[in-house]
Amino acid sequence: MTLPSADLERAVEAAWPRAQARWSSYLLLSRPAFDDGPSIARIDLGTRQITLAASALADRGLLDCVEALLAHEIGHHVRYPGTLATSARMRVIERNLIPIQGYSLMNLFTDLMINERLGRELEEELVRIYRSFDGERGWEADPAFVFYLAVYEELWQRERGELQGSAREAFARAYPGHRADAQLLAQDLFRLGPNMYTQFLYFVSIVSRYLKPLAGEQPESADPYRCGGGEPTPDDWADALRPHGPEREAIRRALAEGWFPADQANRLDDLADLERRIHSIPGAGTADASRVPEVMAAYYRLEAERFLLRPPPVALLGEAVVPTTLEDWSMGDPPVAIDWLATLLERGDRLGGVQPLKRERIADYEGSDVPLWQPRTEIYLDVSGSMPDPRVTRNAMTLAAQILCVGTVRAGGWVRALLYSSNHVRYWTFCRSEVEMSRFLMHYIGGGTAFPFEVLRESVEECRDQQPIRVVVSDGDFDRNYDERREHAAAFALAAERSPHMVLLLHCPREERVQLYRRAGAQVVVIEELEDFPRMAAALSRALFEDRGHEAP
Question: Tens of pLDDT along 228-266?
Fold first, then answer.
């Protein structure tokens, strides 16, 4: 890393407050750092850290343009795109319209939106920044960028070719009608707000006409100012898998007004399809798809929110306790022993933070037990070949299991799960992490179906007097597994007898099988349609346990 010169330090010191004031008086951003990265200035939207390339600024003579650079990066933080969640959603849209690996128009769009606002006062500085890169790369590999520079010329009424520079004449011969497109984009784009997705679609509809390179098989970005950094989190990508209102409205308008040719319009019209959106996740469909399971785990957690439930608690007996007098808490004492309310009242927020008070609890009457409540759920999920892979599409049965996991954890309880087909994989430690369980549920085995009755029997023996609620999520293949061996029926009956509830969520079971399982002591929830699994998983909790709440029997 090149250390900044004293001149650059002074320039940043003077420009930083002015740059922030161009957007707001109440921004919480750390001071810019210096790092010779791929762009002369950039912001990481994950950390919100702005960095400047000290050597590049000095070499290009742009020290007096620091305010424009900083104000531009703040624009990414404040509005365009503002968040990595918005960035992820825009990438999903773009990937379906422009399926070119490694190429994007999104940074050009957000830069244009920011510079239109800043250009009212910082136009000259912004023009100098773009002109400083003239002629460094052949324009034929990315004609869309040269067209993009023409948009600025029309927007700011600059002399034609002032920003296009050495590429002007050759580009005009190759694309004689590009000036009309540039004028149209500069005239109409900013009137389409405030819906940023509408503006983005309109931008892409025009700029994509210039994507095909005149050199090479596919375009290679010539944008020297790729300044929007940061990678969306799995939760950001998961949120982008569901189209929301502004996006749907933007797509409706783009289709109604015929902005795109037929092939792109058809892809845009199908953008509500989940599988199409999943294929827009970075790495999907390639050799490096490691990010996809993490994103899909986050997606199932978000979907579970729509059906969120609180499963029934399981009664345990524990000793009745009462609090004792206050004492100083010291290192080595369990943090759970701290009485924070008493600490704040006695010592205040400053002293209490470093010298908290603890309060031990002892039995009120030695040996006196009272009912305690601990929700515990054990899930058996069928992931055989007849079920879709939850990593590439929406699997309603996996979502039902996710709902049960989330509901258990949020009720203050523990959950563990087993996924099975011809073999099985299990997360067999009772867990209280929604994230860990959602990741585990992304495993997919495929193949045949063999319910692990031997594991079910072992679980009953292991849990003894702390039996969990057991839920099996499967289809008609469970019947065949049940009938294969006599000891399977015995293991099932034992689990139904010992469990607080033994519940089967079965897709389209035969009536005689439903009656058989009920006679064995299980509760059977019949699922007529696969997409009913999540709704019935939520209804199961309400129907069976809501009235009992958390009261002792």
Answer: 778 999 999 999 999 999 999 999 999 999 999 999 999
* Cα 412 to Cα 403: distance, rounded to the nearest angstrom: 14
Average pLDDT over residues 20-29: 91
Main-chain dihedrals φ then ψ at residue 366, nearest 5 degrees: -55, 125
Between strands 357-363 and 369-374, the pairing is unpaired
Interatomic CA distance for residues 204 and 110, integer angstroms: 12
CA–CA dist 541, 553 (Å, integer): 17
Q: Please report which confidence band the pLDDT of residue 206 belongs to, taking 50, 70 and 90 as the band edges.
A: very high
Our CA angle for 415, 420, 421, nearest 5°, is 165
Query: Domain 374-545 sits in which CATH superfamily?
Result: von Willebrand factor, type A domain (3.40.50.410)
- Say which amino acid occupies 250: A
- Counting other chains too, the contacts that 28-35 makes at CB distance below 8 Å and 24 or more residues apart are 29/74, 29/77, 32/70, 34/1, 34/2, 34/3, 34/4, 34/8, 35/1
Q: How far apart are CA 538 and CA 309, in angstroms?
A: 6
> What are the tens digits of pLDDT across the range 276-329?
999 888 877 666 677 889 999 999 998 888 776 445 555 555 555 666 788 898
Average pLDDT, the chain: 87
Please give the model's pTM, rounded to 2 decimal places.
0.79
Q: At what angle do helices 106-131 and 84-97 cross, to 10 degrees?
A: 100
What count of other Cβ atoms lies within 10 Å of the Cβ of residue 303?
Answer: 20
Residue 46 DSSP SS3: coil
SS3 354: helix
Q: Tell me the domain boundaries of the chain.
A: 79-278, 321-363, 374-545
pLDDT band, very low/low/confident/very high, at 207 (cuts 50, 70, 90)? very high
Sign of the Cα torsion 293, 299, 301, 307 reads negative
User: CB under 8 Å to 202, separation ≥6 — which residues?
Assistant: 185, 188, 189, 192, 254, 259
* Interatomic CA distance for residues 522 and 536, integer angstroms: 16
